[in-house]
Amino acid sequence: MISRNVASFINELHHENVLFYSFDFDKSKPSVIQKRYLGFKEKFQGNIFERSTSSADYQSILQSVKDYLSAQPFTLIYTTADILAVKLNQIFKDISVIGIDNAEFTDFVTPKLTTVAIDQVKKGEVAIERLLESIESGTSAYYELESQLIIRDSAWINQAE
User: Fold this and answer.
1) Which of 16, 36, 78, 143 has its CA 20 to 30 A from that of 49?
2) Distance between CA 14 and CA 156 in Å, rounded?
């Protein structure tokens, strides 16, 4: 749900080329990032470029996007974590950026980060409930939490034609 909503918003901003950026994940194995990727891919109407990193340290992120430093085929970066969004925004200053988490540290960055807010306490409570249920039943169930897209200064309408 989160990534489908973000994709709809990006479509409304007329971005046709987006970099999906995340921590490393296996597309064939169920995970939070895999679900975000698939949801985004399902709803976004343009071209998706993909990059990932094993670490949130600046050098690892820089290394993962080095091919795009001189020319960017994308006009927006959608990341699966605010920490990645903030660091990528330092690298690509003229590119729209959207993150996920609404982390408190984003109050101290410029431009203000467009992000998706997720109730982290509720996320933890639901995770524990689902873990206990899966231990008891021997199965696991998919769930989605409510989220809110918070539009700030880091994502704008694509003016390029």
Assistant:
1) 143
2) 9
Are the CB atoms for 79 and 101 separated by under 8 Å?
A: no
**Which is it for the CA torsion 156, 157, 158, 159, positive or negative?**
negative
Strand 147-150 versus strand 114-118 pairing type: antiparallel
52-109: pLDDT as tens digits = 999 999 999 999 999 999 999 999 999 999 999 999 999 998 999 999 999 989 888 9
Helices (H) and strands (E) in the chain, counts: 5, 6
| pTM above threshold 0.90 | no
> 8-61: per-residue pLDDT in tens?
999 999 999 999 999 999 999 988 899 999 999 999 999 999 999 999 999 999
